[in-house]
Every structure is written in C-alpha cells, then in structure tokens.
Amino acid sequence: MAARWRLGGGASGALGRRLWCSRARDPAGPPPPAVEDVAELLRDATLGPGSKAGARPRRSPGTTSVLLFPGQGSQSVGMGRSLLRYPSVRALYECAARVLGYDLLELSLRGPREELDRTVHCQPALYVVSLAALEALRHRRPEVIENCVAAAGFSVGEFAALVFAGALEFEEGLHAVKVRAEAMQEASTAVPSGMLSVLGKPQTQYKRACLDAREHCQTLGIKQPVCEVANYLFPDCRVISGHLQALQFLQENSSRYHFRRTKMLPVSGAFHTQLMEPALEPLAQVLKKIDIKKPLVSVYSNVDGNKYMHANHIQKLLVKQVVCPVKWEQIMHAIFERKKGTDFPQTIEVGPGKQLGAMLKNCNLKAWKAYSHVEVTEEEEQDEEPLAG
C-alpha cells in the first residue's frame, strides 16, 4: 500500500481531484493541478510491490466503505448549517447560486419549508448538501473515501453518487438536476397525482391492488389511469404512484389487499411513473451535452439495480430513471449480499436524514450494524419518512 500514499493519498487523492477539478471548489482561485489520466493514476496507486499492472491488492471487506446518497423527502430546513465550517462548502453554494439563479444556501438554512419542499428547489438542494457533506467526510474521515468500493443514490441522489465517482462534474450535474427538477415539477402540475407509502405483509397483493385501482379510475371517466409501484424500499414496503383517485381507492380498501399501513407522501406528483414522461426530453437533451466519464468506483443504477458499465449506459438510464421504479431494495441486496461469515463494509449515508439507514436495517440487519451518517444540521433529528424522487 506504500505506493498509494506516495501519490498523495492514492485513490483518495485521485477521486478528490476528479471530484473537485472544476472551479466549484474555489471559484475565485486558480484551478487545481491537472491530472492527465485519473483512472491510470488510480490504478497505479493501488499497486503494491511486485504487483502486476491492472491487479488490485485484496482488502478485508471490513476495511472498505460504501457511500449512500439520499433523495427527495430527506430535506429539512437548516440542512447544511453544520458543514459551513469548511470553506469549500461555501464555495459550492456560491457556485450553485450562479447556476440556479437564486440563493440556495439561504433557502436551505432558513426556508420557508413550503418552498424548500417544492420539487424545483428540493432536488438541487439535496444534490448540493449531499456533496457538501461529502466534503466534510473527506476532511473528517479521509480513509472512508480512500477505501470506497461502491456508491448508490436514491433517485436524484444518484447524480451526487456519480459526481463522487468522477462520472460527472459538479456544475454539469447541478445543471442537469435543475433541468430535471423543473421538468418534473411541470409534469406534476399537469395531472392530479401523488405517491402513497404502503407497509404490507408477505401476502400483500400489490399488482392486484394497482390493477383494481386503475379499473376504479376508469369508472370515473379517467382515460389511461396510472397506478403502479414506484419505489421498492425494503421487504414488504413499497411506494405506489399514480392518479390521486387511484391512491384514494387504495387507502379506502387497504384491508382487502393486506396493507398494514398507508400514508400519502408530501409530494406533488407521481414520480417514477409514465406521468413523468414530459420530463424525459429536457433531461435527455442536457445529458447529451455533458462529457460523462466511466465511474472510478462502482455506482448502482436505480433502474435495474446493477452497476453502471460505461458513459452511454449512464446517459441512457439517468433519463429512464424518471419514469421507472426505484429498485432500492434490489440495490441493497446487490451491494451487501455475501457469504456467511464475511465482514460487511462501513456504510455511510452522505446527506440529510437517516432514511437510507432505516431501509438498510430492514434489508440487511448485519450490514446496518456498520452504518453511520454525516450530520448536516446542528441538531439533526431522525426522520424515517419514505423517500420519493
């Protein structure tokens, strides 16, 4: 491992340079030194004495880490306050203000809550505060970034995960999130729709429930009604999205389908369903203009629960994600499935709230025992509301 440290932190240094290579880290100062081939540097930095090119030393799973980035629903007024001690965090918010055209830091710190909760503001706010939390993590626990082997983000959190992994630049990612949020907000206003959190049982009939709800909507004169699972959170927990009339039907008939508990989420639309189709083209156009790179660490897609393989794969699935269900439970199984007796990596939730930790606990209790999170407010409360978009 000596070679890694001789190169200024090895993987940590390479990831840090790729992550903060834009002017976002210090808009007023000179850009950091250029790295001609970060992937080459990262590969060479992991070579020990006598190792063959392309080979990586084996590490104990218990010394590795996984980073998780939250999505819409985890926001709270005051988020980011505890991170402002780091100068680079203020620089991120200054850059965000230029990209967005409004003071995101002021909105994040002081609200009002109604404005922060709006999709058009919430998604950029979560993206920036998650990367600000990543900067705090880099200062406090650099070994976590050094030894990271995988990352994943819930819905909009996937953009932050890809920035961390070096696939996107900060400003490019923020611009894409801005366009995505505006398009999803506009699509939400076109049809009265929403999202319903459902805690079920092993015998819960999700498909039958959604089918009956759609048929109910047709009796009300709604053409092409939508009602489908939008989020797979953990065993026996789903989020169903669709027309409001369909969701109301499910609440009124919850016992028929063996629902233990239902709750409407505080969002304005049916995210991750075909009702978001108007948002596809604006996001697709902006992603075509971005120089997406292959991630330096494994990043798992919400669409199929598998690792992204190349830049075109990222471009395609980030668009598709808007209208496809978030397969978070499947991602947790893909990352944490291992032979009995094998240690689990440290898992850190990078952003506001602890929802992803709560989901991990329900997916894999042993993996959750190595979980922690980066606090982003001075007095952060645990909130286990389901995520949305």
Automatic annotation (TrEMBL):
Enzyme class: transferase
Compartments, record wording: Mitochondrion
Domain spans labelled Malonyl-CoA:ACP transacylase (MAT): 68-379
Lipid metabolism as UniProt keyword: yes
EC assignment: 2.3.1.39
Broad class of the protein's primary localization: mitochondrion
Annotated protein name in UniProt: Malonyl-CoA-acyl carrier protein transacylase, mitochondrial
Native source species: Sarcophilus harrisii
